[in-house]
Amino acid sequence: MSGDPLLRALPLLALQPGRVLRAVAAGVATLGSALALAALSAWLITRAWQMPPVLDLSVAVVTVRALGISRGVFRYLERLATHDTALRGMTSARTQLYQRLADGEPAAAAGLRRGELLARTGADVDTLGDVVVRALVPIAVAFILALSAVGVLAFISPAAALVLAVALAVSGVAAPWLSARAARTAETSSAQARAQFSENAVTALDHAAELRVAGRLDRTVSQAVDADRDAVVGTDRAAVPVAFADAATPLATGVSVIAALLIGMNLYSSGTMSPMAMGILVLLPLSAFEATTVLPAAAVALTRARIASRRILAVLDAAVAESSTGNRDLDGPAEIVASALRSGWTADAVTAPVDLELRPGARVAVVGRSGAGKTATLMTLAGLLPPISGTVRVDGVDLSSVESGALRRNVGFFAEDAHLFDTSVLENLRVARGDIRESEALEVLRAVGLGDWVSGLPEGVDTTLAGGARAVSGGQRRRLLLARAILSPARVLLLDEPTEHLEADEGADLIRRLLAGDGGLVSPQRTVVVVTHQLPENTGADQVIRLEKSQRNNPLPTP
Fold it and tell me: Parallel, antiparallel, or unpaired: how do β-strands 492-496 and 411-414 relate?
């Protein structure tokens, strides 16, 4: 879709005009107090130089004190108002983002690397929310205060007001433009590096033990460090225009003050200006520029928010544009039939054609080496990825015609790297079904081999897994995820590597029990598809599908 990405993304914040106006009003009151303080202080200094009776100055003295105090009070209120609006907006944006991703095409999110998805739902939303605090409110306040300062000065000296207007334009337009240009350069060159850093950092944190055993931890950490260094280099490359932008406001302030001083001296010497007016003429510009000093940072915030909005909208547009329009319910046995199915993340890396028939209660094993497309095949059967070619039908209906909610309730894909949350064991299982009773949970945990482990926990299934997956071993994590899958309401279970990181004998025993109709883990009425690298002998699988290495850059046959 066309249009400014920031304007399209701002509605995600669901900003309430009343809250924004209160924040702007508080900001205007803050800098308005500073502007009035500068003008009144200039008048008081020059009037005191004339040594009038003290009582003539008492009102001005009290007002100066009041303005000094009110400035701090209004600044506090402005911070409260802007941050409250921004935080509410970020909460709204994340809620809408998660909701749209959940309701839309799953491939929009599933096709992203974990680090990239984390960056878009985390840092990018934060950057979008920063627009309120760092851009929208400061720009509105600066515009109002600049007009006020020029208007006040115009009553004293139109020439000085004209100089101030030009100087404010340099500080409020030229400097932000240079800052925005620098930010655009830095963000464009370092955005990919930051996403790569997030991916490698998340991988190293979540899978440190496995990577260390495989001898790849140091390389992953090194890749994260290199990506972070590339991001810093991109930022440094934009330092030159930033330096000019930083210098623009002090130079504009100096020019404005010197010009006001020269104009005031000329008018004072000709007898057409009083000393108090001359003091105001010289000191008022110093306070006027306080409003524009934040505009370069506002321009940077707008640029970063625009880039972040583009990344956020790319995911949302994909979810909406590619989403299934199906509205058919699943009221049959959830029988899945795939014909000549080729799966993959992209069209140049696909599996060989697969024919598959999953009748109720079927037990199927999918075997292949890493990169063969096993996970992609399961995600395609679950409707999380569109088929590269071929068809997938559920109860005789094309998969794309089935309503997404009905499909998720009946066909469940359970990833090997599914998340364990920093909450109790029971609540981690309730991710699959919210009404799981403690007795049900204990029964399934014992069935998957975690009975002794749960019994040894301080509070049983109510024990909190501090740190999520870091609180358990790799094998315990797999068993917990398997228990979550078994407790789900899905009638078709698509299990991706459910026994990875288990001892060979224990893993083989679990796979045999999963693929046996009377194995005690899954009821005979439910369908089970298991992906594994190593299929043990003597399983009860009705069908074994062996996938070869993905075919790359191999044109698909013409329909």
Answer: parallel
Q: What angle do CA 29, 30, 35 make, to 5 degrees?
A: 90
Interatomic CA distance for residues 76 and 27, integer angstroms: 10
Report whether pLDDT(480) > 90. yes
Q: Assign 539 to helix, strand or coil.
A: coil
Q: At 555, which amino acid appears?
A: P
The whole-number average pLDDT for the span 474-499 is 90
Going by the DSSP 8-state scheme, the letter that residue 461 receives in this structure is: G
CB within 8 Å of 381: residues ≥ 6 apart: 336, 338, 341, 356, 358, 392, 411, 413, 494, 529
Mean pLDDT of the chain: 83
- Tell me the CA distances in angstroms from 11 to 2, 6, 8, 139, 309, one per residue in order: 16, 9, 7, 19, 11
| Secondary structure (DSSP) of 1-18 | --S-HHHHHGGGG---HH
Runs of H (alpha helix) within 207-357: 208-214, 217-237, 239-269, 275-288, 295-321
Residue 355 CA to residue 276 CA, distance in Å, equals 92
According to DSSP, residue 402 is labeled B
Interacting residues of 27 by C-beta distance below 8 A, sequence separation 6+: 74, 78, 82, 137, 138, 140, 141
pLDDT in tens, 71-83: 889 999 999 999 9
Closest CA to 414 of 494, 480, 507: 494
In this structure, the number of other CB atoms found within 10 A of the CB of residue 54 comes to 9
SS3 436: coil
Whether pTM > 0.85 for this model: the answer is no
d(CA 493, CA 527): 6
Q: CB burial class (10 A; 0-12, 13-18, 19+) of residue 456?
A: exposed
pLDDT digits (tens, 9 = 90+) for 320-349: 755 445 677 777 778 888 888 888 877 677
Q: For residue 72, give Cα distances in angstroms to 32, 66, 391, 458.
A: 12, 10, 67, 51
Phi, psi of 242 (to 5 degrees): -65, -40
Q: Alpha helix (H) ranges present in 430-473?
A: 438-447, 451-455
- Give the residue from 325, 345, 330 showing the smallest Cα distance to 408: 330
CA angle (117 as vertex; 489, 409 as ends), nearest 5: 15
Helices (runs of H) and strands (runs of E) counted in the chain: 21, 11
Q: Which helix (H) or strand (E) holds 511?
A: helix 504-515
